[in-house]
Amino acid sequence: MSPYWLILLFLSSLSCHHVLSHSKVELLPGFDGPLPFTLRTGYIGVDEGEEVQLFYYFIESENDPKEDPLLLWLTGGPSCSTISAIVYEIGPLKFEEIQYNGSLPKLVSRQYAWTKMANILFVDLPVGTGFSYAKTPRANYSGDFRTSSHVNQFLRKWLVNYPEFISQSLYIGGDSYSGFTLPLFFEDMLHGNPSTDRYIDNNHIIPFAHGMGLISDELFEELERTCGGEYHNVDPNKVECVNNMKAFEAKEGYELVYYWMADRNVQEALHVRKESIGEWRRCNYEFEYSFEVESSVKYHAKLSTKGFRSLIYSGDHDLVVPFLGTQAWIRSLNYSIVDDWRRWWVDGQIAGFTRTYSNRMTFATIKGAGHTAPEYKPKECLAMFERWIHGNPL
């Protein structure tokens, strides 16, 4: 991929006296010995008077941090902490896979971390997520457009304070709900299982579940009858439809990170400010957030006209954002196919299927993966990321 340094166009508008709050983390409770990679954490203030303080984790590439690209990664939700991406998806650490015994969960190295070939900047966004916080009550809310503004301010200030990374290739990535906000302001994207159009995504969930054999023919027929094929913003007066949809309610399955993040020693090691510490949630769904963007397809269309490359990938077992919906909005862009539907391979095994379009967009499925694909298929997703980021076909 050709390097894009468009962010430099904005740097001249910033005064360079901003003081960056950051600290190097060499030891983490739960991990044996010094960290085998460079981790820095800190806060950057955005908005008027820097009323919003955004917490970040910056992990340098384990390969060649001075030459490898910079990837800014945002987690979805909205309001899900980026620690999920670090310990469950693409970061260099993960929890030891043993039954929890009441003590502090142990961390071990992840073999297929994306930090093996990229510098990754993880940000708790929007305000109210993870350890990001507001200094005033009026700043303690967010929405799609405010979030996009905050990311823009954050990245510009971060690059001013880390000038050694300005000349490196910049990639922007995220998963799930970030698919609504990232295309608002970024030219070059890397999206995993992105939510893009609420209507398209939600209306493909039931057909996908039926096609994958996850629900019976009888339940599918009842859903079709009672909901009429409309599963987005279901009318609460449609009692039969609402009752049938309850079969799709999900349960939280990430207990270990709660125990680890709640530990005071962990918070001190991460240099978390005391004013940002409350009841830590992996996803803060009680936070006041305005869902303003119904569809980000038009932003993808605009980016496509500028010739920037993008990778859109979906776990083919993802019930949250089924790949059927992702394929539907990609087709709506009406770009011609330059590399038609084919298998892609890892270690002699089929890893999924892929297709590339004339707008330099690559779509890929990851065989057997769920919503956060790297969590389920780490080897395959690392191979995909490595090939794409180096401009090679999957």
Q: Explain this structure to me?
A:
The chain has 394 residues and is of the alpha/beta class. It folds into two domains: 8-196 and 254-299, Rossmann fold, CATH 3.40.50; 203-248, no CATH class. It is 28% helix and 22% strand. The protein has 14 helices and 16 strands. Strands 1, 2, 3, 4, 7, 8, 10, 11, 13, 14, 15 and 16 form a twelve-stranded mixed β-sheet that branches. Strands 5-6 form a two-stranded antiparallel ribbon. A hairpin with a 5-residue loop joins strand 2 and strand 3 (52-59). Helix 7 packs antiparallel against helix 8 (239-245). The longest helix has 18 residues, at 144-161. It is globular and about 55 Å long. Residues 1-19 and 187-191 have low confidence and may be disordered.
Quick recap:
The chain is of the alpha/beta class and about 400 residues long. It has 2 domains: about 10-195 and about 255-300, Rossmann fold (3-Layer(aba) Sandwich), CATH 3.40.50; about 205-250, no CATH class.
Radius of gyration, in angstroms, nearest whole number: 21 Å
Q: What oligomeric arrangement do these chains adopt?
A: single chain
Total strand count, please? Answer: 16
Number of domains: 2
| CATH architecture label of the largest domain | 3-Layer(aba) Sandwich
Overall shape? globular
> What does the largest sheet look like?
12 strands, mixed
By helix and strand content, what is the structural category? alpha/beta
* Percentage beta strand: 15-25%
Give the CATH topology of the largest domain.
Rossmann fold
How would you spell out the order of helices and strands? Answer: HEEEEHEEEEEHEHEHHHHHHEHEHEEEHH
CATH superfamily of the largest domain: Alpha/Beta hydrolase fold, catalytic domain
CATH class of the largest domain: Alpha Beta
Helix content: 25-40%
- On the 0-100 scale, what is the average pLDDT? 83
For the record, give the distance between the C-alpha atoms at the N and C termini, rounded to a whole number: 13 Å
Number of helices: 14
Low-confidence stretches are: 1-19, 187-191
InterPro entries: AB_hydrolase_fold, Peptidase_S10
GO molecular function: acyltransferase activity, transferring groups other than amino-acyl groups; serine-type carboxypeptidase activity
Keywords: Signal
Signal peptide: 1-21
